Amino acid sequence: MNIYLARTRGFCAGVSFATAVVERALQEYGLPIYVYHEIVHNTFVVNAFKERGIVFVEKLSEVPPGSRIIFSAHGVPPAIVRESERLRLRVIDATCPLVKKVHRQATKYSENGCHTVLIGHKGHQEMIGTAGYIKEELLHIVETVEDVKKLDIPLELKVGYITQTTLSVDESKLIIEAMHRRFPNLQDPARDDICYATQTRQDAVKELASLCDMIIICGSANSSNSNRLRETGERCGVPAYIIDSAADLRMEWFRGVENVGVSSGASVPHFIVEDLVKELEKMFPGAAVQRFENPEKNIVFPLPELL
Ligand code: SF4
Question: Which are the contacts of 230, defined by CB distance < 8 A and separation ≥ 6?
């Protein structure tokens, strides 16, 4: 058995940033600290913070007035910012800087009266946040090429688009091409919204797919980027499974497999992948572990000033 580890995997700079914000807030202020939504979509990260007393909430009404609240890496809509001010909450913003860049683009489109097609998965926390920066009458959400055909925007009006940061690079390309065919004057955002971490992790899974008979992705079921990695493997014709940890492995997946690829979503701690590798080595004594050089080691986002 050969075990190939993806070139890029584990925490992206945005997840490192958001978790570091929570750590620093704990050090500087101690408890109580509230976090609006899961700080990142990973069960282990969230449970570890819960064990240290951090309280995760889905509604601001659960937070006592005047308390400290951290906004998660996925970002929040302006309505939540306003509600926090009304409740005199002391806000610490852990929104990934790359998500905030998308918020700025959304604001700019709305200020210019531009109909904005938001491409992504309805109901995902990042989509809820970004949609809030687009005027209601200018907002259109699409998930598929089929949805593009149903858009009801007169051709003479201004139209632009933005995307969720963690989409499938290949699928969103097809949707954007369909948008360009449908709206000849379509405005592209100033820069690609799909973030570097999503792109490099999907590229790394394609590399694994060229070497492996099966791929395992570590990640939580609600993690968008982890699910896109599993789909990327499958689209390359290689069976791929998503697991929270080594405990979820199933022996039947390995029938006839000689080369297994391992990767993880951008919100997965490195130790989860290392534990998985140890488990695979136990299951398949003598297995060789192949590691590639990671090109993105030096990408770091500076921490915000805390309040
Ligand atoms: S996946 Fe991309 S957008 Fe999301 S937190 Fe990481 S760097 Fe930021």
Answer: 215, 217, 219, 240, 241, 242
Instruction: Domain 2-11+195-290: give its CATH code.
Output: 3.40.1010.20
Digit-coded pLDDT (tens) for 182-239: 999 999 998 889 999 999 999 999 999 999 999 999 999 889 999 999 999 999 999 9
pLDDT (0 to 100) of residue 293: 87
CATH number for the segment(s) 13-96: 3.40.50.11270
Sorted by where each begins, the domain ranges of the chain are 2-11+195-290, 13-96, 98-182
Span 117-134, mean pLDDT? 97
Locate the ligand 1 atom nearest the alpha carbon of residue 96 and give its number. Answer: 8
Whether 162 shows a pLDDT value over 80: the answer reads yes
Is the pLDDT assigned to residue 3 strictly greater than 80? Answer: yes
Position 283 scores a pLDDT of 96
Q: First-to-last CA distance in the chain?
A: 51
CB 39 within 8 A of CB 72: yes
d(CA 120, CA 178): 15
Q: Let me know if domain 98-182 sits in CATH 3.40.1010.20.
A: yes
Using the mean position of ligand 1's atoms as its centre, give its distance from the Cα of residue 11 in Å.
Answer: 9
Give 165 Cα–ligand 1 centroid separation in angstroms. 7
Domains 13-96 and 98-182 fall in the same CATH topology:
no
pTM for the full predicted model: 0.94
pLDDT of amino acid 91? 97
Q: Are 73 and 95 in contact (CB under 8 A)?
A: yes
- Give the distance (Å) from ligand 1 centre to CA of residue 156: 35
Positions marked active-site = 126
Ligand 1 atom 2, closest CA? 195
Which atom of ligand 1 is closest in space to residue 15's alpha carbon? 5
Q: What is the 286 CA–ligand 1 centroid distance (Å)? A: 36
Secondary structure of the chain: what % helix, strand, coil (to 5)? Answer: 40, 15, 40
Residues with CB under 6 A from ligand 1: 12-15, 73, 96, 98-99, 165-166, 195, 197-198, 225, 266
